[in-house]
Predict the structure of Glycine--tRNA ligase.
Amino acid sequence: MPAKTMDELVSLCKRRGFIFQGSEIYGGMQGAYDYGPLGIELKNNLKAAWWRSMVYERDDVEGLDAAIVQNKHVYKYSGHEDTFTDPMVDCHECKSRLRADHMKDIKVCDNCGSTNVTEPRDFNLMFKTNVGPMVNEDSYTYLRPETAQGIFTNFKNVVDSTSRTLPFGIAQIGKSFRNEITPRNFIFRVREFEQMELEFFCKPGEDEKWHEFWVGARKQWWLDQGLAEENIQFEYVTGDDLSHYSKSTVDILYKFPHGFEELEGVANRTDYDLGSHTKAQDEFDITAKVKKNEHSTAKLAIRDLEANKWEIPFCIEPSAGLDRGLLAVMTEAYTEEELPNGSTRTVLKFKPHLAPIKVAIMPLKKNKPEIVALAKELKNKLQKLGLGRILYENTGNVGKGYRRHDEVGTPICVTVDFDSIEKEGAPVTVRDRDTMEQIVVNAADLPAYVINYFINQD
Ligand code: ATP
């Protein structure tokens, strides 16, 4: 029976080194978390799976890694400076600040029940920061609230350096920052997080077809990461809930421990961003000089060779939160099982490609040099396969090791024992996380066994 409360996940994450409260030794900081030794592996594996599917397995997507700190005009013309806001309500009694659209009743404080609350006001979510040694009215910019703008501002650079024609996409993974009014639900709503974003550019008129395609493709990808179909829903965003740049948005929701909430948004951003950055070029001297020339690099447009004209493409954006993705994958994987002997075990049943540790190699005897040497040799061999982290772990207690590795989701444990050094073929014991079955494999056959396991299981 899966028991999946947020408290259980938070506690496992801390105990086993997935996620820690940020700035913990100073009392913590709201909305900021640190990823520990296993958390970083899980994060990297999820990113790699996204990159594989979005870039390597397609021939119409390029990658990018743009700077987090950009010229402040990017956010003026993207519309974020004026419209990237959430409605906020202040309670005069308990002094808490609340997001109006999350309140049960905007006239009553959710925290203390008082009706002595302000009218909702717009609060801009971007973090302002100063750039350079001088602090004056002009020296500010913002930490990016989405990675997307770095893609739009590099549109021409990518087109010119890769000779892409429509349709094609640009993919990026990186940190984003939002000064959320009420960060909550562990890593679900935080102020510093990572996004995995694709901006897929197509001809106007083909946008709705591509929008539908990406909604389906992204759902499938989450299923491939192990999320169960019944825990995924779509929500069609309408009216005032649409972002300032969106013509239509489909949110992919997942059943987190606190309920169904957004995991990824797939938006039809039309030509809004490329169009407004292109228009903005008029206001700058540097580009005004080349503006009259049709081939200006400042135009974020692409040449339609058939119609012989410049065209600003439409853009479909699947934008996934990496931290929310990690929370979803952990929620789904968390399993408590009753064993035949009446005891229980906690297992993280990650898909093998996501498991933070792929194989744990444990010598049965801590101080037996031949056993230790063989275990280390096998670790080095398996590490070279490039599957991810292979852990050599010499605690001398294999039973405890199995329990620990169940709890962190290690798919395979290999034990090196007396048979391994005494018998021909150096047989080692291979234990499967999910079935708990143990089989014997000769040391020379172990790399092939492990590769086969990881290829067949995903
Ligand atoms: P929400 O309505 O939950 O605030 P949003 O609609 O503002 O989210 P988008 O702007 O569509 O979110 O961002 C795309 C994705 O980035 C979201 O689906 C989510 O996975 C992730 N994301 C956005 N804000 C946060 C946050 N504060 N903490 C963690 N992830 C976030």
Notes: Confidence is low (pLDDT under 50) at residues 285-297. Residues 178, 180, 189-190, 193, 195, 262-265, 319-321, 323-324 surround adenosine-5'-triphosphate (CB under 6 Å).
